[in-house]
Amino acid sequence: MRIISGPASQELGRKVAELSRSSLTEVEPNRFLDGESHIRFKGSVENEEAFIIQTTGPPQEDNLVQLLLMIDNARDMGAKSVTAVIPYFAYVRQDKRFRPGEAFSAKTVVRLIQACGATEIITINSHSPTALGQLGFPIEDLSAVGLVAQYFKDKGILNVFSLSLGKKGLNMAEQANNVLGGGYGCISTQRDVITGNVTVEEKSLPVDNRNVVIFDDIISSGRTMAKAVALVKRQNPKSVYAACIHPLFKEDAKEMILRNGADGIVGTDTVTSNVATVSVAPLIAEAITRD
Ligand code: R5P
């Protein structure tokens, strides 16, 4: 088994190689003068089961093209099998045509990865595992919610009410509650497909004088989380924390969430950020050594 640590996930790739006791091939990233990506493997992958670890967080296009180059290169260099380990999987939020004429980008990126020669995809808390599962390609969707919940437990934050956001949210809160206890719930959110504006359901929650952790898969602009924090804050909690798996943090997301009353923000290292407190390396290492 060989880990190939892609340019966007070098540190994570190193940690996974160490935890899974696998050999590591590092990748030398470069650019042609006109800005195009160039990659070179610093070692052989011949006859190996290769696991390419490359997130596709911002800059998404660069990281995705590097991933495709690495998959194809691993095949050309004689790898026996190639698994694309994509901690944050860009483009899969568009998991159908919401409006006529829109590109179905989740399907497009999976087809590209397949065409380059990957045998499987492993990802973490993808936006829509069910939709991805219908694309006819083997995709394993891991969940890092337990690891994030464990972080709060280890910090001694007890009597926690776990709250999650959006349609598939209850699932995350339930997983967190398995670690934290204390009960769980969900707030619905609605996004206008044209303006992108988010509305958060006004809901009375059992959070009076309790510690609350709000879980979402992604924090991007931070608007959804900021509104959820403000809603909880109006209901007299002891503390409220914002937790996510993929801290993409565009614009002033972090500041906005803190301004709305969050006592802290916790995310994982699926993408690079300054709130990547929890590492998903053990989760990936366990998945790739399981069989
Ligand atoms: C949406 O369905 C996701 O689960 C997140 O709630 C969303 O991506 C967060 O986006 P933003 O931070 O821009 O509000």
Characterize the structure shown.
- By secondary structure, the chain is α/β, with parallel strands linked by helices.
- It has 9 helices and 15 strands.
- The strands form 3 sheets. It has a 7-stranded mixed sheet with strand order 3-2-1-4-5-6-7, sandwiched between helices.
- Helix 7 (223-233) packs parallel to helix 8 (253-259).
- The chain is globular.
- It starts with a strand and ends with a helix.
- The structure holds ribose-5-phosphate.
Shape: globular
* Largest sheet, spatial ordering of strands: 3-2-1-4-5-6-7
- pLDDT < 50 runs, ≥5 residues: none
Based on DSSP secondary structure assignment, what is the total number of beta strands? 15
Structural category: alpha/beta
Count of helical regions: 9
Largest sheet data: 7 strands, mixed
State the distance separating the first and last CA atoms: 12 Å
Keyword list:
9 helices, 27% strand, 291 residues, binds ribose-5-phosphate, alpha/beta, 6-stranded parallel beta sheet, 15 strands, 7-stranded mixed beta sheet, globular
Summarize the structure.
With 291 residues, this protein is of the alpha/beta class. The protein is built from nine helices and 15 strands. Helices cover 32% and strands 27% of the residues.
Write the layout of secondary structure elements.
Layout: E1 2-5, H1 10-19, E2 23-31, E3 37-41, E4 49-53, H2 60-76, E5 81-86, H3 105-116, E6 120-124, H4 129-133, E7 139-142, H5 145-154, E8 160-165, H6 169-180, E9 184-187, E10 189-191, E11 198-200, E12 211-219, H7 223-233, E13 239-247, H8 253-259, E14 264-268, E15 276-278, H9 281-289
Parallel strand pairs: 1-2, 1-4, 4-5, 5-6, 6-7, 8-9, 8-12, 12-13, 13-14, 14-15
Antiparallel strand pairs: 2-3, 10-11
Ribose-5-phosphate binds next to strand 12 and helix 7.
